[in-house]
Design brief:
CATH architecture: Beta Barrel
CATH class: Mainly Beta
Distance between the termini: 63 Å
Structural class: alpha+beta
CATH superfamily: C-type lysozyme inhibitor
Largest sheet: 8 strands, antiparallel, barrel
Radius of gyration: 22 Å
Strand order of the largest sheet: 1-2-3-4-5-6-7-8
Order of helices and strands: HEEEEEEEE
CATH topology: Lipocalin
Number of strands: 8
Number of domains: 1
Oligomer: single chain
Length: about 120
């Protein structure tokens, strides 16, 4: 075999390995965004960021829309006896989902109740 042929084969193999490792579709962002219709005229977009290795979403970006005004919150998982709960870093705001009902609140008090669109 000629030296140029061997170099080309090695290059192709390295390129293939690179593609499989770094461009693997399984490693792409698996974020999930849902729309919520809520009481009190609220509409929300909840983006659950890419889950960890166990499939658990640990970060949430929440956009709340009411009367053409938008508020945004970054939240992390919080302790919950049941359902999935997320809170802002100062624990002031929360979004808690239990049995298909989403509750958004502040300082432990519900502000609105939502359902997925």
């Amino acid at each position: 075999m000629s030296k140029p042929f061997i170099i080309i084969v090695v290059f192709v193999v390295i390129s293939l390995i690179f593609t499989l490792i770094f461009l693997n579709p399984k490693s792409k962002d698996k974020a999930k965004t849902i729309e919520l219709d809520c009481t009190n005229g609220y509409t929300m977009l909840a983006k659950y960021h890419t889950p960890d290795g166990n499939g658990i979403f640990s970060k949430l970006s929440l956009v709340i829309i009411k009367d053409n005004k938008k508020d945004s919150y970054e939240m992390n998982t919080a302790m919950s006896a049941s359902g999935a709960k997320f809170e802002t870093s100062n624990s002031e705001y929360f979004l808690w989902e239990h049995q298909g009902i989403f509750r958004f609140g502040r300082s432990g008090q519900d502000i609105t109740e939502c359902k997925q669109r």
